[in-house]
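note to self: dont lose this again. the chain is below, predicted strucutre after it. 205 aa total, dont forget to put it in the shared folder this time
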Amino acid sequence: MEGIEDKGTPDEAITLKTLTAAIKGDPSAIRRVKANPEITRKLAIQMARECPEILTIISQDRFLCEEVVEGNWKALEYVEEKNKTIDVCMIALKGNPLSIQYFPRKYRTNRICKIAVEKDGRAIEYVPKRHLYTATYREAAKTYGMTLKNMPDRLKTKSICTNAVKNDGMALEYVPENMKTEPLCMEAVKQNKLAINYFPTDFAE
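---
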């Protein structure tokens, strides 16, 4: 096979053991992987889905990355910037909205951030500040109570806080004191009994 430099085993398949050794920095393993581009490509898609770090030691191209990311969204972290096309990123987003954390800044648009947050409120942790609107927080709070933690108090509303504590009672810690009504506190403790630790002093008594 053209391009194979390891003359001792020209037709020997690259095994997961070899790839693992290469990832750990073994010089011999790295030489074998790089010297067998065709064999590596055949195994890379399957193996990289199981162990995304493999992408750091093989030759990447957009099509290979698309196939790998389709099988494991976490692989996007190891995709070279030049191969992080909008198509690759959207494939990852479809697999898991938290993949937005690995998107290039130019692709974290308001539209894409909205899609991610609607699918999983936790994605708000990776939304650029320029796209953090009241509506964004409201949507995130429906599935991620801790949205309140980094949300400015001035944007917190009764409905947002209610959705947040219904999802995670411990989010009561981040509800402004003047909004901790009895109904809200009861919703929080219903979801998590430990939320009582964040009841207003007079109400807890």
